[in-house]
Amino acid sequence: MIHKNSLKLYGGVIILKYDVIIVGAGPSGIFTALELLRQKENTKILMIEKGRSIDKRHCPKEETKVCVNCKPYCHITTGFSGAGAFSDGKLSLSYEVGGELPKLISSMKAQEYIEYTDKIYLEFGADIKVEGLENNEEIKDIRRKAIEAGLKLVDCPIRHLGTEKAQEIYFKIQNHLLDAGVEILFNTVVKDLFIEEGEAKAVKVANSSKKEDEKILYGEKIVIAAGRKGADWLKDMCIKHEIDHTAGTVDIGVRVEVRNEIMERVNDVLYESKLIGYPEPFRNKVRTFCQNPGGFVSQENYDNDLAIVNGHSYKEKKSQNTNLAILSSHNFSEPFNQPIEYGKKVAELVNMLGNGKILVQRYGDILDGKRTWQHELEQTNVKYTLPDAVAGDLTSAIPYRPMMNIINFIMAMNTVVPGFASRETLLYGPEIKFYSNKINMDEKFKTNIKNLHCLGDASGWTRGLMMASVMGVLMGRVIGEENK
Ligand SMILES: Cc1cc2nc3c(=O)[nH]c(=O)nc-3n(C[C@H](O)[C@H](O)[C@H](O)COP(=O)(O)OP(=O)(O)OC[C@H]3O[C@@H](n4cnc5c(N)ncnc54)[C@H](O)[C@@H]3O)c2cc1C
Fold first, then answer.
1. Do 167 and 52 share a structural domain?
2. Is residue 131 assigned to a domain?
3. Which of 142, 410, 430, 442 ranks highest by number of CB atoms within 10 Å?
4. Ligand 1 atom closest to residue 292's alpha carbon, by position in its atom list
5. How many Å lie between the centroid of ligand 1 and the Cα of residue 227?
6. Domain span at residue 28?
7. Of ligand 1's atoms, which has the minimum distance to the CA of residue 97?
């Protein structure tokens, strides 16, 4: 769909020119477009998304029950609304959760814009209920136990969209943007950036499945919102075009699955328990992340064929289990400072032992120093919700440091949630978060390249739906103000 005003003739060559080109239609890109339209209605916006429109996104696993490793990309993480569409849709309503954006813009501003952005989600039909605001005495008691275990409990109200509802909301947003004249090129991948004399001018695009049909599209401003999956590509762009960045963090971890009965109290009181610890002997930051009461463990596939575990929960359809991630954060300096590469090697090793599938092991087997066998998974109360997970030995693949951090953190969690460290607790791996490469920017998201901005998870500054959306809103405001 090409905007008629985009066609300009320069010496007989048709050049497509936009006010703003947004690379990636995940929450950060979407909210940039939404806010930009609110600021300046006639802004000529082009979104370029390598996946499909939300109504055409479909994970074949619903029928096949096993991941068929879709090519050229995984529908769970790619397409309109990005990793948000099939996500659990938990909007974290505290600036303390979702990444380091508050360090760039201040905690107060982050909180203010979380509230603003939350209202937009409500306008598009999000559930009005917020979890984690009641039960103060119960929360106090959980916090007391966390203190006893040496863990910090982060207060974070949650608005839970649910996977199916999240898709409905993003579908409405997609239609709203199209109706408002935003052009969205689906199935189109941005291959390269054109930067001349320190200024971003254009992007080179191609069809996601075919190599031919390369085109150059010009934009006054180029906003890269390519998500976690685009982090690798953005790293290449940073090196090629000398975009200022610093090596970031990689989170290495596992997805833990227990019976709902074990997590009942924290699920009821908090919905999501956000706990942080620095277990001995390494004292790396270890935290819980993305808790799914009654949820399902899932698999996402990266373009380089890595199988990574994740989890989500539906609003209606429930399992008997709760899953959550336990992530151990790692930084590197000299002589090696490539956290993405490190995370990939760990994931490759775990995938190799799982024959390309997600590996699962019982906590008790880890303590006993033995692998888990497939038939042993059937012997316990926890019925595993990822049917094609392969029983095996995570400890043969996850390095000593993160593995010890995870084991010790699970033991500490047992004080807060009795039964959490039981022998039948399931650990799935690898759960790796490739945040890496933090793009150096000011509070207006300006990089060292004029007219080039980077947003959301790809920028290294966010790690969740709400914070990525907030960054988009702020981007929309900044560009809107500049164009007034
Ligand atoms: C299974 C799952 C569950 C999750 N659950 C939650 C949750 O409950 N709560 C929460 O807060 N967060 C959750 N997250 C994380 C959340 O989805 C992300 O933090 C958020 O989507 C980041 O938004 P983004 O806009 O930065 O990037 P993304 O949502 O990743 O979107 C980036 C988009 O850019 C596209 N793209 C990438 N490179 C290119 C390119 N070169 N050319 C064109 N297009 C490109 C991608 O296809 C993608 O659609 C979950 C993630 C997953 C995978």
1. yes
2. no
3. 430
4. 8
5. 5
6. 4-124+162-246+439-483
7. 11
